[in-house]
């Protein structure tokens, strides 16, 4: 790298880091303004009747977000100024706290609806008192915008970070974590619209993705909303209620531990298959994603899940054999074998589902 390029590289690095740290302070001040000025309005006698008891719907978990950033995250972010590439590690160490944003985003549509219907005029008086150009709705959008800003700045750092340095993997993971939390709120909102589900979704691990797909079972084709959990793939059908609300009628589910995956099917590039060990009639389902990118994301996520399960199952088998005196010391072995995910056949029982999978 020439001297000119080095100067350009380090200047860009410093600019990105400085922007992340400086805007963090601005963001915290915006949250504090809401908490100090708008939250107390909800305790006044003049609160309209249809806003009473709606404090948590309007403001969500903004106080918890403020506490995390002002008391914990801001100081740690400042520490990465001397080594910008450590920002990825700092974000990943606080990945559980960033789940606050998924919950905030899940609540946001309800907040927007109440403000539009009843809250705008009431809170406008406080805005005029503060002589502020921004209204409450603009401030309540700040957490959503902040996460999008994190995603952008972390991506810029990742582009500057050499792939061979240890910090690269943390930065890459941080970018994916922030992007996940950005969409996870919408995913959780959609999950709340599932109806008549005969499995306990709270026991299926984290919801990873949800999306509409074209689904084929043999020659039968339909549209299904798929929900991918760590332990379960749920298929549902969109239904419009008389009230105008869209819900998702539960149709079927497949344990991910009993799932096989063919990553590419057909010539479109947007299709993949899920299948079962017992190649019975109707035992293979072809999924077509709305785009190549969405298909890639789903196949990557499902492949990762299957690999984790294959490794876990192999470890459990080794421990079981060891306890039965059938083998040596248990340990992790990833040598090529019939257990490799590319060769793995897994079973699922559809006896209780019948042929109504795509009804």
From TrEMBL:
GO MF term set: guanyl-nucleotide exchange factor activity
UniProt-listed InterPro entries: DBL_dom_sf, DH_dom, PH-like_dom_sf, PH_domain, Rho_GEF_signaling-related, SOS1_NGEF_PH
DH domain segment(s): 12-188
PANTHER family noted in UniProt: PURATROPHIN-1-LIKE, ISOFORM A, RHO GUANINE NUCLEOTIDE EXCHANGE FACTOR-RELATED
Coiled-coil residue windows: none
Annotated organism of origin: Capitella teleta
Boundaries of every PH domain copy: 200-307
Pfam families to which the protein is assigned, alphabetical: RhoGEF, SOS1_NGEF_PH
Name the record gives this protein: DH domain-containing protein
């Amino acid at each position: 790298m020439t001297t000119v390029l080095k100067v350009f590289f380090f200047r860009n690095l410093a600019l990105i880091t400085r922007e992340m740290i400086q805007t963090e302070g601005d963001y915290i001040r915006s949250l504090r303004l809401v908490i100090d000025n708008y939250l107390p309005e909800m305790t006044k006698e003049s609160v309209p009747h249809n806003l009473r008891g709606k404090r948590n719907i309007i403001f969500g978990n903004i106080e918890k977000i403020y506490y995390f950033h002002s008391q914990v995250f801001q100081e740690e972010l400042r520490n990465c100024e001397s080594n910008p590439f450590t920002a990825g590690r700092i974000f990943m160490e606080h990945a559980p706290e960033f789940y606050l944003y998924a919950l905030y985003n899940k609540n946001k549509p309800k907040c927007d609806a109440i403000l539009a219907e009843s809250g705008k005029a009431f809170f406008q008086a406080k805005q005029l008192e503060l002589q502020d150009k921004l209204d409450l709705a603009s401030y309540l959008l700040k957490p959503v915008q902040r996460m999008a800003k994190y995603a952008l700045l972390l991506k810029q750092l990742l582009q500057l970070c050499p792939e061979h340095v240890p910090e690269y993997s943390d930065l890459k993971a941080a970018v994916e974590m922030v992007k996940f939390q950005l969409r996870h709120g919408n995913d959780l909102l959609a999950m709340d619209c599932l109806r008549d589900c005969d499995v306990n979704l709270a026991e299926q691990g984290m919801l990873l993705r949800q999306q509409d797909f074209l689904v084929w079972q043999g020659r039968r084709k339909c549209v299904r909303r798929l929900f991918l959990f760590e332990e379960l793939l749920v298929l549902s059908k969109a239904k419009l209620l008389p009230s105008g609300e869209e819900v998702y009628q539960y149709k079927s589910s497949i344990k991910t531990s009993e799932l096989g995956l063919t990553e590419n099917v057909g010539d479109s590039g947007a299709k993949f298959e899920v299948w079962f060990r017992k190649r019975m009639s109707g035992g293979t389902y072809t999924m077509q994603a709305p785009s190549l990118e969405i298909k890639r994301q789903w196949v990557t996520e499902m492949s990762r899940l299957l690999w984790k399960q294959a490794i876990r199952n192999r470890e459990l088998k080794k421990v079981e054999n060891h306890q039965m005196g059938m083998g040596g010391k248990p340990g992790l072995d990833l040598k090529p074998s019939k257990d490799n995910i590319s060769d793995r056949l897994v079973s699922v029982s559809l006896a209780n589902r019948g042929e109504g999978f795509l009804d």
